[in-house]
Amino acid sequence: MLVAEKPLKSYLQKYFGFDKFKGEQEAIIQSVLSGKDTFVIMPTGGGKSMCYQLPALIMDGTAVIVSPLIALMKNQVDSMRGFSNEEGVAHFLNSSLNKSEIATVKKDLKSGKTKLLYVAPESLTKDENVDFMKSVNISFFAIDEAHCISEWGHDFRPEYRRLRPIIEAIGKVPIIALTATATPKVQLDIQKNLGMMDADVYKASFNRANLYYEVRPKVEVAKEIIKFIKQNSGKSGIVYCLSRKKVEEIASTLAVNGIRALPYHAGLEAAVRAETQDKFLMEEIDVIVATIAFGMGIDKPDVRFVIHHDIPKSLEGYYQETGRAGRDGREGKCVTFYSYKDIEKLEKFMKGKPVAEQEVGKQLLLETVGYAETSVCRRKVLLNYFGEVYKETNCGSCDNCMHPKKSFDGKEEISTVLEAVLAVKEKFAMEHIVNVVTGKAENTVKLHQHDQLEIFGEGEDHDTKFWTAIVRQALLAGFLSKDIETYGTLKVTDAGKAFLKKPVKILVVEDNDYGTGEAEDDEEFSGGGSAAADPELFAALKDLRKKIAKQKNVPPFVVFQDPSLEEMAIQYPITMDELKNITGVGAGKAVKFGKPFIELIAKYVDENDIDRPMDLVVKSIVNKSVLKVYIIQNIDRKISLDDMCKAKGIKMEELLNEIESIVGSGTRIDINYYINEVIDEDRQAEVFDYFKTAETDSADIALRTLGENDYTIEDIRLMRIKFMSELGN
């Protein structure tokens, strides 16, 4: 046990230059100095690091800090060296060091210079390191990111579960475990595994009052992200994606749209990741697009927004990642794009894993869905997940509180749900309860003969979604409890039983519906959208198209098709770059026909004082799909279209769709070698001449006009490709 010689604040001032502690830091540090095991649950930005850094500097010996991320260790060590004249005050020991660097670390440890040693759990488990540590005077062990111990945590690492026996082998010293996120279940797991059930526990509130939470449907997500970032121009932010491929794609799209952004994921070289991190910290870039590999422990207090392109796998992961916004206590916007299709995709990833792991993953995903789809205060739902009761009725800082949905008295509905839970003897999870109430005789319902219960089908006048929302709100109200350890089994609480005896008015709301969202891997970033075209400009553009078509002696649709003109009348492009971003206008078409169109639009905008929706004009990255590249290369090699269909396992109709899309964007291709094999010269000439004078490029109208006995729709489409390519591109 060590009692500080002077007041703790004087040490804080001496080593770090601060004059006051944050929250419960002082009590936590006092607990560590007293030699007690200490458990700290403190949200991101609460000042966890100080809880072990200051006692390490005060106490005799070296504090060993177990940390899961090598990239993080260097940051922490550099930061500590910045507060001290002694270079050896802090070191890290991990696989990135060579033999001579390891020798230096060990020498400084032996001499007593080093007050903090950061180690990866893998390094700590090596026999030679365990033997060496026995010879070092260790003040205490700090287990950072302690949630990694629990398989119910969002970042489970098996090697963390082996820490206790290793610490005991090295010598009995106090332990401080720290995490930014821990549900009651995870907290118990950590304490049991580290053998610290008698530890002093300090749990700060999980409420980050300065953060604004919003969930949006996943529609035209790249465009929405660009729009949001441009509205928050010059501010620092993080965009999280689940896959490396999506990280690269979104980072490139942001960059070509004038946003200073770089990608960050585990597939990049360590040096590149470190450089990107430094650029972000030094504000040479504004936005990092990252997988969850980024941000743990990043000490940047002024991240103003965190965007989730994809919903995370667990609410703990979500809380941890959104927690990187507004660490200085000022503005922090957290916007998540959600589609249930993303959840289905995450469920697919779980297949093939051990059954227990799948069940854990499924349960965590259900919590995430509940949060995303709820119409209740998001802060209330989030804090409830961490075992904290939020008593305010309106937080004033989430989308559901700012734009509440209509509520109704759900007294009867809540009672129905509670009765159903009791009727099945409190042994089943939410999905089963909802099936019983809605009268769905699923396998497990039949197996347990729950289709014979009186309550079966009592709520059939409402759908599954409605009853799922009622169950969630019964949980929030404290009438039900959920046993996560038995994969979400619902039990009626004492408050729930009291409610059943004497039901009172309770306001509930239906969940949000995000069913229309996209979850594809390859969204097309075209402009347009549902805005109405400017009728006056649209008419002027059509007149200009007619005039140019006459000059060039081609039908108007060869110049630009109607959807392209419509989009021009929505987006008002006035530069060549903006025009190239309009659907159906590739670089070739823009160069060939574009100049008079952008001149007309610029004049119209100026004369009518139009406020152009510039934030909506999204430049796409040159993102030719693998199939498009394959097609262009094989057409150049004069490979038969039939052979391409066989090679790719697609129908001719799909292949022609792709070729039409290539030609429609202004790329010139030559498929005469194939056409000459399947359509004779006279018929080719007839179709070509038809399109020269046709008012529309419709293949169906062409087929009806030219005769269905003489041609197939395939013939017409092949000739239309030839015609558009030769005359338009």
Task: Give an overview of the whole structure.
48% of the residues lie in helices and 11% in strands. The protein has 729 residues and is of the alpha/beta class. The chain has 5 domains: 8-203, P-loop containing nucleotide triphosphate hydrolases (Rossmann fold), CATH 3.40.50.300; 211-386, P-loop containing nucleotide triphosphate hydrolases (Rossmann fold), CATH 3.40.50; 411-504, Arc Repressor Mutant, subunit A, CATH 1.10.10.10; 535-616, Orthogonal Bundle (DNA polymerase, domain 1), CATH 1.10.150; 626-728, Arc Repressor Mutant, subunit A, CATH 1.10.10. Strands 3-4-2-5-6-1-7 form a 7-stranded parallel β-sheet, sandwiched between helices. The protein has a 6-stranded parallel β-sheet with strand order 8-13-12-9-11-10, with helices on both faces. A two-stranded antiparallel sheet has the order 14-17. α19 crosses α21 (464-476) and α30 (652-664) runs parallel beside α34. The longest helix is centred in the last third of the chain and has 21 residues, at 587-607.
Summarize, please.
This protein is 48% helix and 11% strand. It is of the alpha/beta class.
